[in-house]
């Protein structure tokens, strides 16, 4: 379980560190930084998949994702005595992402490229990376260290450092190029865990949504990020997952209704009073979205971390309480992070003793965490 997430220099997240628990609820007004927090977690996951540079390019490049305000905001700027203005830069331009868990921690520092004649000269460079054991980075618990193009790995047996790669390109992470079952086992383990993080922010329910159409089905223990294979995912839960929990989740939300999957792997709902089941093409957006969330949260192969961005979209208020119960149950198997605008869903989730509320607010364009924050975090040096 991730116990601490740290982001520096990413959009409005100039310097954010937050503690996480089993069930995390991120709230805040529009523009407070919720989407940036969600994207920063996705970017961390894409580092483990070798897609970090491409992902930043898709967001407009490093220049578009960096903190847009001054490096330092003085107290006089905050009180309005002097206008907000740029100051003399003392630190290098950087975007930093990191997290620590109960066993490992990882951090990366991306910066501006060196002057170059290549057509790819606007790509950001990875300046440094670090992997360590435990919750806090210290010289004594550092396992792998990347500075520039040099990657060093410490032997578990002797504790001696050795050079793993001396000329790693600035666009490649040590997470993908130095993970090895013999010489880089910890990197390999953490990389696979980060790759398995699950994100749901695009569960389509429109008229042309893939979830409404017949599909070719195979065993599907993990619902696709767009929900296109929901029929196969539901049938997989019925056959090898918790079918009783599935029945309970649907009956709880729709007054005794039940699901079935036809021969075309299309979801059908049978409701009291109807002579035939309604197939996915006939279901309302809210009903289909709830079914998609059920398929994601009752996965027979639960991830270590699942992140849901505004799952309440299209849902009738009466479905928020059943969704909250489903999320609380899912947090017993996976660490859950929910980004939500719904006060009803948030209040229902906060009833869980395992919940952690994270309220974001903005001041002079910078995102802050409401409440006292005293988190010990150290970034790796370049």
Mind explaining what this structure looks like?
The protein has 382 residues and is α+β, with helices and mostly antiparallel strands. The protein has two domains: 2-19 and 30-80 and 91-195 and 361-369, no CATH class; 205-302, no CATH class. Helix content is 26%, strand content 25%. The protein has eleven helices and 17 strands. The protein has helices at residues 34-47, 52-58, 62-65, 75-79, 174-177, 185-195, 230-240, 243-253, 285-297, 320-330, 343-349, and strands spanning 2-8, 16-19, 23-28, 94-101, 104-111, 125-133, 142-147, 150-154, 161-165, 198-200, 258-261, 267-270, 278-279, 305-309, 335-339, 355-363, 366-369. Strands 2-1-4-5-6-7-8-9 form an eight-stranded antiparallel sheet, with helices on one face. A hairpin with a 2-residue loop joins strand 4 and strand 5. Helix 10 runs parallel beside helix 11 (343-349). The radius of gyration is 23 Å and the shape is globular. The mean pLDDT is 92.
């Amino acid at each position: 379980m991730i116990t601490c997430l740290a982001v520096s220099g990413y959009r409005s997240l100039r310097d954010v560190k937050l503690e996480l628990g089993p069930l995390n609820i991120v709230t805040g007004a529009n523009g407070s930084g919720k989407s940036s927090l969600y994207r920063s977690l996705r970017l961390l996951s894409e580092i483990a998949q070798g897609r970090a540079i491409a992902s930043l390019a898709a967001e407009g490049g490093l220049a578009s994702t960096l903190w847009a305000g001054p490096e330092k905001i003085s107290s006089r700027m905050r009180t309005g005595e002097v206008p907000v203005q740029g100051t003399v830069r003392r630190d290098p331009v950087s975007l930093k992402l990191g997290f620590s868990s109960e066993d490992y921690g990882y951090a990366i520092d991306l910066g501006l490229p060196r002057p170059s004649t290549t057509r790819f000269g606007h790509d950001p460079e990875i300046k440094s990376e670090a992997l360590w054991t435990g919750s806090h980075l210290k010289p004594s618990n550092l396992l792998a260290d990347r500075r520039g193009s040099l990657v060093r790995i410490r032997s578990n047996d002797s504790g001696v450092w050795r050079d793993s790669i001396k000329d790693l390109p600035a666009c490649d992470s040590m997470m993908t190029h130095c993970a090895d079952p013999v010489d880089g086992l910890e990197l390999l383990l953490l990389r696979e865990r980060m790759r398995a993080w699950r994100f749901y922010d695009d569960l389509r329910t429109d008229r042309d949504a893939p979830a409404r159409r017949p599909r070719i089905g195979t065993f599907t223990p993990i619902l696709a990020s767009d929900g296109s294979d929901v029929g196969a995912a539901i049938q997989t839960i019925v056959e090898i997952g918790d079918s009783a929990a599935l029945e309970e989740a649907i009956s709880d939300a729709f007054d005794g209704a039940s699901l079935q999957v036809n021969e075309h792997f299309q979801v059908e709902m049978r409701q009291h009073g109807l002579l035939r089941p309604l197939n996915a093409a006939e279901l309302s957006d809210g009903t289909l979205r709830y079914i998609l969330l059920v398929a994601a949260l009752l996965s027979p192969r639960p991830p270590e971390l699942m992140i849901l961005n505004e799952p309440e979209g299209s849902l009738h208020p009466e479905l928020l309480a059943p969704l909250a119960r489903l999320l609380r149950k899912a947090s017993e198997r996976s660490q859950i992070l929910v980004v939500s605008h719904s006060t009803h869903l948030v209040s229902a989730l906060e009833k869980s003793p395992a919940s952690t509320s994270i309220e974001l607010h903005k001041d002079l364009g910078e995102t802050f965490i409401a409440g006292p924050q005293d988190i010990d975090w150290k970034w790796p040096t370049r």
